[in-house]
Sequence to fold (130 residues):
Amino acid sequence: MFKKGTKSYSIFNNKCPRCQNGDFYLDKNPLHLKKILDIHEKCNTCDLHYMIEPSFYHGAMYVSYGLSVATSIAIVIIATLLGFSLITSFIAVFVGLIVFTPFMLKLSRIIYINMFVSYVKDFKNEDSDS
Fold:
């Protein structure tokens, strides 16, 4: 599931979706809030430009929305199983979304680019040839 060549490998290791060698984010730690959305301009291995077109990552908002809904549902289910009241469940969802937002922001961008760029096993950069 997390082997090189799979989308999950690129997503959970924050690697380039095309070659899966180069890093995607400048800083992998989602808790460094000042650098949370800073990505490399291009992959240092295969030269894939991460900003495919202007405002490309605006589409990642939809992925982030889906992650937020899934997180909220999971928190409500856990709160219900633990016997929390409805108000306490909503408070848990609110706190959970605040806590997980930095993680979801980073995750949504890498998921979004993986939706459009596929892994190439033996990628050779034609531009680097003489």
Summary: The mean pLDDT is 89. DSSP finds three helices and no strands in the chain.
